[in-house]
Write a structure and sequence with these properties.
- The protein is of the alpha+beta class and 530 residues long.
- Strands 1-2-6-3-5-4 form a six-stranded mixed beta sheet, with helices on both faces. A six-stranded mixed beta sheet has the order 7-14-10-13-12-11, with helices on both faces. Strands 8-9 form a two-stranded antiparallel sheet.
- It is globular.
């Protein structure tokens, strides 16, 4: 209705304007705007109802409006059920029906940068940018027209141990989208011009790293923590490595790593039997491969220092021609995804929390956590301070990332070390049952609220099936979180801090020169073991 009103207003305004100009078109404008038969029919029914309705009945929201499809109450729908089917070639198909018209289907593959070699390092990151290419059946333009015509989308995400391809579409368009997904992965023609376009995207990302160094910093963190293990090698290729990546290396990586027994096809908002049939049609020909001979992640712990060069042209992270902020990352080895201590480490991460000096969307983001109340609120030169917990199949990294004013880097290490050691101390700075309980509540609410989003739900479904062979329900995780005690939190903190620290410092030369504290950090945490 509002659209019609706006249309009439614009129509009348244009008509008056033409009349003032003497109607240069030479033809009189029609006196009435175009008709909307369906809208008029609805208005007529609504007017008839208003005339026959009794007083106050017009204001009731208990009766359905005429011409509006009936809504189904969620209370009478079945409880979402997780189903799992394994195809003859080992590919696992899992789904949850959420009774919504939008389907989200993701193909998860148990590979990533961890399984790259020195010869093809960065190939998975290049494949991430090489989405929707020309295939043996259709050109790239035709593929894009199909996707745009049905309003769907296809995305790719690459991590160290998992590569995922995710599609969003209406349920009735799923067969066509599944065909496009299969052809894009397994029928890629690897045309040189399209490959160069993907390389151009990666080159642009590499050139932008100084403006937003967070990605670079966490790549360096893995190099500092695992200098001799494949999991520590960077996901980002160097310019020289990128130049060497071509059709043969891309084809070999897909052929060797994309095996059916390493795949999980996860769907949300789709009928399970329908998803299984589509999987059999498009992915039953994918061959099996032997299980990965995974090199163990050997944690070492070391320091990586990166100087940000002086640049005359100011960027978004610069001030007076120099970088505005310096960065410090302090990390330790933590429990893996398969460890019994995983939930305790997650509670510890929630308890430390953190935040930044600017919070978009209003207050309430971590404001009761330790790093916010005891660091952000006390030191105005700290721009952000956040705890992170990165977990993999056989290892993990737990630590704190701090962003400070560019000339204050040398002051922040002592602050962070004191806050971490306070977790093991007694009152008044030690842990309390109240803050542990608050951290558990925040962790549970964060997990459950994130699972309300379709893309998070399908990722949780696929990655758990890939790792555990099934989905562990949120109720089970909630029970394990509730079972964590204050003594367990202290115990996991002591265990984490007993490993050798991994440190990354990033900033201008003057700040880096003042930061000579790695040995002092190592000695500090060695004393905590005693």
């Amino acid at each position: 209705y509002q659209r019609r009103v706006r249309g009439e207003s614009v129509f009348n305004m244009m008509n008056k304007l033409l009349n003032k100009l003497g109607n240069p078109l030479g033809k009189p404008r029609p006196p009435t705007p175009p008709s909307f038969p369906q809208l008029k029919s609805f208005e007529a029914k609504l007017k008839e109802r208003e005339q026959t309705a009794k007083p106050f009945e017009r204001l009731s929201l208990k009766q359905e409006l005429p011409g509006i499809p009936a809504l189904t109450s969620q209370s009478i729908l079945k409880k979402p059920e997780t189903r799992l089917t394994e195809l003859s070639n080992g590919l696992r198909v899992t789904s949850e029906e959420i009774f919504q018209p939008i389907s989200v289907v993701s193909l998860f593959i148990g590979t990533g940068s961890r399984y790259e070699t020195p010869q093809n390092q960065g190939v998975s990151h290049l494949l991430e940018k090489f989405i929707l290419p020309s295939t043996v059946r259709t050109s790239r333009d035709e593929v894009m027209k199909k996707i745009e015509g049905i309003g769907a989308s296809v995305q790719c995400a690459v991590q160290r141990e998992v590569i995922s391809y995710t599609t969003f579409c209406l349920q009735e368009d799923l067969p066509e989208v599944m065909e496009i997904l299969h052809d894009s992965i397994f029928e890629n023609k690897y045309l040189e011009e399209e490959l160069q376009g993907a390389k151009g995207i990666v080159e642009h990302e590499l050139s932008q790293l100084p403006e937003n160094p967070q990605s670079l910093i966490f790549e360096q963190l893995h190099a500092a923590a695992y200098p001799s293990s494949p999991i520590g090698q960077s996901m980002l290729p160097s310019p020289e490595q990128l130049a060497n990546l071509g059709e043969p290396l891309c084809k070999d990586f897909v052929s060797n790593e994309y095996a059916s027994n390493r795949m999980v096809l996860a769907g949300v908002g789709v009928e399970h039997d329908k998803l299984v049939k589509l999987s059999e049609k498009y992915f039953s020909s994918v061959p099996k491969k032997p299980a990965h001979q995974q090199s163990p992640a050997v944690y070492v712990g070391s320091e990586v220092r990166t100087e940000e060069a002086f640049r005359e042209n100011e960027g978004p992270c610069q001030k007076n021609g120099m970088p505005h902020c310096s960065h410090l990352v302090l990390a330790f080895q933590s429990p893996s995804l398969l460890s019994d201590d995983l939930h305790a480490s997650c509670v510890l991460s929630s308890l430390l929390g953190g935040g930044s000096s600017f919070s978009a969307g209003g207050p309430g983001k971590g404001m009761y956590s330790r790093l916010y109340t005891r660091v952000m609120n006390r030191y105005d030169f700290i721009q952000s301070c956040n705890c992170f917990n990165l977990s993999y199949s056989d290892t993990g990294l737990f630590g704190v990332h701090v962003t400070v004013d560019r000339d204050q880097l040398h002051r922040v290490a002592e602050i962070v070390c004191n806050e971490l050691s306070a977790l093991l101390s007694e009152k008044p700075n030690g842990l309390t049952n109240e803050e542990v309980q608050r951290a558990k509540n925040q962790l549970k609410s964060a997990v459950l609220m994130n699972l309300e989003m379709r893309n998070v739900l399908v990722e949780d479904l696929g990655r758990q099936t890939l790792l555990f062979g099934e989905k562990i329900q949120p109720e089970v995780h909630s029970e394990k979180i509730d079972a964590v005690t204050i003594d367990q939190v202290k115990g996991i903190a002591r265990s984490i801090f007993s490993s050798k620290p991994s440190v990354v410092v990033y900033g201008i030369q003057e700040s880096i020169a003042l930061f000579n504290q790695y040995d002092a950090i190592v000695n500090y945490f060695n004393q905590l073991k005693q």
